Amino acid sequence: MSILAAVRPDSWNFPLFLHVLGAMILVGGLLTGVSTLAFARGDARFLRLGYWSLLAVSLPGWILMRAGGEWIGSREGWTKEGVPTPTWLDIGFLLADLGGLILLISLIVGGIGVYRLRQGKGAGLLKGTLVLSLILLAAYVVAVWAMAGKPN
Amino acid sequence: MSFDDWLLALHVLSAFAYVGGIVLFWVLVVAVRKTDTPGGTIRMEPIVKVGNVAVGIGAVGTILLGIWLAFALDGYAIWDGWIIAAIVLWAIGGGIGQRTGAAYMQGMTKAKELEAAGQSGSNSELLALNRTSTGLLMQSLASIVLLLILLDMIFKPGA
To answer: Cβ atoms within 10 A of the Cβ of A62, count?
Structure first.
C-alpha cells in the first residue's frame, strides 16, 4: 500500500483531496450535530443548531465526498463494468450510499422536528435525528477505517 | 491487514477527529456570535469539551502515528520534505489552536462570572467577548493550516 501511495499518479490527487475533504466535513458536521442535539436538553436554540449543523455542514460534506469518490473511483478504473472491486471499496461505496440515504431520512425527520418545535409540540423527532446521526457517525468511522486501512 | 495498515487507518482516523473538532468549533464560533446571555454561553461548554477531546485525540494521534509510519513504511523517510512540512505545520496549527481556545474562553469565563453574580440577562460586554475578532482570525488561520496539511498529505510534494 505504501508503494501504491508513493506511485499514485498526480492526476488522482485532486479528486482524492476533494473526496477526503468532503468526508472530513461530513464527519465534522455529524460530530457537531450529535454533540449539540445530545447536550441540548430540550433547549430549542441548541436543537435547531444541531439540526442546522447536519443540514448546512454534513449534507454538503456528503455531496463533496460522494462526488469526489466517484471521480477518484473512475480515475482509478474501479467504475468500469466487469472490473472486480476490492472489499475496502465495496465497504466504502455501501456506507457512503446507505449513509447518504440515512442522512437524508434524518434530515427530513429533523426538519419536521424543527417545524414541530416552532409550534411548541416537543422535540421527539429530533431525538430520532440524534439516533440516526449517531449511527451514521459510527458507520463513517468504519468507512474511514476501511478506506484508509484497505482490508482485503 | 498488517500492523502498518492498522496504524495508517488510525492515523487517518485521527486526522478525521482533528478536522471534525475544528468543524465543530466553526459551528460554535458562528453560534456564539449571536449569544449575549451567560446561560446561552455556558450551555455551549459540554459541546466545547467534545471538540477539545476530538482535537486532542486527533492532534496527538496524527503526529505520533504519522512519525511512526514515516519510520516504518518503505519509501518514506522522516526527513522527506513533505513530512517535515507536515510536522512544522502541525506545530504551527497546535499553537494557533491554543490561542483560538484562549480567545473564546474569555467569553466563557465572563459568562460564569455574570452567572455567579446572579445576572442572567443580555450583556453587551459578553457579546463583544463572544464575537472576538482575534479568536475568529486564529480559528481561520488554524483551519488554513489544517487544509495545508491535508494538501501536503495527499499531494506529497517532492515525494
So the answer is: 24
What is the SS3 assignment for B76?
coil
Quote the pTM value: 0.92
How deeply is B20 buried, as exposed, middle or buried, from its count of CB atoms within 10 A (0-12, 13-18, 19+)?
A: buried
- Evaluate whether B51 touches B31 at the Cβ level (below 8 Å): no
Give the residue on A whose Cα is nearest the Cα of B24.
A32
Cα Dmax for chain B: 62
CB spacing of A145 vs B74 below 8 angstroms: no
Q: In this structure, what C-alpha cell is assigned to residue A62?
A: 456528503
| Of A70, A31, A32, residue with least CA distance to A49 | A32
Nearest to B16 among A16, A24, A53 (CB): A24
- The pLDDT tens digits of the residues spanning A96-129 come to 999 999 999 999 999 999 999 888 887 889 999 9
The interface pTM score, or ipTM, of the predicted complex is 0.93
